[in-house]
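ERR on first pass: missing label on line 2. Operator R.T. fixed the label and resubmitted. Corrected input:
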Amino acid sequence: MTPPRILVFDIFGTVVDWHGSIVREVSQRFPQVDADAFALAWRAGYQPAMEAVRSGGRGFVKLDVLHREILDGLLPRFGLDHLGDAERADLNRIWHRLSAWPDSVAGLTRLKSHFTICSLSNGNLGLLADMAKNAGLPWDCVLSAEVFQAYKPDPRVYLGAAGVFDAKPGEVMMVAAHHDDLAAARTCGLQTAYIERPLEFGAAHVKDVSPQPDNTWHARDLLHLADQLGC
Amino acid sequence: MTPPRILVFDIFGTVVDWHGSIVREVSQRFPQVDADAFALAWRAGYQPAMEAVRSGGRGFVKLDVLHREILDGLLPRFGLDHLGDAERADLNRIWHRLSAWPDSVAGLTRLKSHFTICSLSNGNLGLLADMAKNAGLPWDCVLSAEVFQAYKPDPRVYLGAAGVFDAKPGEVMMVAAHHDDLAAARTCGLQTAYIERPLEFGAAHVKDVSPQPDNTWHARDLLHLADQLGC
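pass 2 clean. output:
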């Protein structure tokens, strides 16, 4: 297989640690709250919220809006229904300031020396730009579902990223910690790299990170991917 | 006036030297051609080509396509009609590898330490990402007419950039070497900074860079802008 020239990265769980970041901030702000359950509940609303858009039942709205709707829905369950609008808005921006996994900045920096590297996330552009600035993620270009007005695994996102660079799908490689994202990318003709993130859901919920043979590469983390790709 | 939190930059002429870059490459490839006239003719096709999109007569097509059409139209005039498709495609990608003005990387780096900095160009995303990688432009986010499917001075571009960051228009400042771009941004409520680029069209065609009082700032170059903004 010809090496790719563009690497596109899933973000939540793959490049940044959403669970750990939310647990840390929620624990600090609201010591009485089960922060692990809170983080998992917020994330659990993610796919159903996007599904309303993917199914065509709702026009495209950016992920900040969906995150806020999910948040508003779960606050009563955690005894936080008294939070006002400004505090909710600030809490919602947790997703803009998620911490990178320890290998991410160094791994991306090495990969950037050999490839064009872009985010390709369901997160919106402003979220991804704020996150990159905060965490030091050195993207060549911030790409997002928002650019293509469709959420992964809609093929328009994967093929749209290739189109941005006038690239054939096989010249692009999707990098993700989720086999379903990679399977959808593969269906569009992209190469795929799986990144093990066993602690994506926290140490109490270790994730199965077994290899699946259909992926082009399988790596422990982004440094290991850089090793394998000769960066 | 409240300081902006996001700076958006025009690119061609403001951050990169399109005229000098094209003259250098064309002179080297085709010593028999008047490279100054060639660069000016290519650029002269730019506004009319976009106008076909802006007027609604043509759906949005990215600038790479328009640049190629203009190029195909002017090659006969310069005795280069014999160039094949691959050579034309490569020549067209000059716009992806334009050189930055000498102050741009240092100026942007200083501005980035205080503000979110984004391109906001009629160039397409792939062009801008390739250019940033090649010239070392440290964008927080690459924004383009392509994202908003409209060409400046269409208000959707300026207001779209503010929308990406959930910002009020006055929280965004457009930075450009062209008063018409700044005037359109100002109409949308953005702050404006004019950058003098007297040599944008080459040393044989020095540009009037007189201040216009409606702009929020007026700077010799991006380092001078950084000085004035306290970076």
